[in-house]
Amino acid sequence: MPREKAADEPLTLHQELKRSKLYCIDRFQQEIDTRCEGMECISDRFAVLEPNNLIETSEIELSKFVQSLVENYNELSADGILTEIPRLRRFLKVAKVPKEESLGWTSLRFLEFVVEYELFDSVPNFTLAFRFFLTLCVSVTWCERSFSKLKLIKNYLRSTMNQARLSCLAILSIENNVAEGIDFDDAISKFAEQKVRKKRF
């Protein structure tokens, strides 16, 4: 047929760009959906730690949230968490924390409250649950970045380095934000005081 395009006719530059953009958009959508599913799973698992549930939810509904958390972490006790929730509510009242303010708290702020008033022995399961939640990796890139530092630290020129030195250098490299704030003159003077040797005559 005249003016009919062949099936194997190559795409124009405009069509190729459009195809690439649509492919990228589809890939972004898939990645976002995957991450949202993971975040929803974590949110459902740690639903008992949400401020609204900690402060206002009834014990019947809380038992469902606690059960989903305990199923994934054997270190936590369901009965212990259910007894610690009223205890935590009483501590908030004694500390005179307004209800509206505590409803806006994050999990980190609740843990800071426990640390501030030294409530580790009173709410041990909650302390452990908050630590589990706050130490979850949002993505694997931070962990992979830590491992990739080892290639830079221990190369073929430093092949005889022992494990203790490698661990210390890796910590300094990974936590470089903290290391940059260290006063080296103060650190050197403390090191010199500890390693001072008295001469015997």
Automatic annotation (TrEMBL):
Membrane-spanning ranges: none
One Gene Ontology molecular-function label: protein dimerization activity
Origin: domain of life: Eukaryota
Coiled coil regions, renumbered to chain: none
Domain HAT C-terminal dimerisation: 107-177
UniProt-listed InterPro entries: HATC_C_dom (IPR008906)
PANTHER family in the record: AC-LIKE TRANSPOSASE-RELATED, PTHR45749
The protein, known as: HAT C-terminal dimerisation domain-containing protein
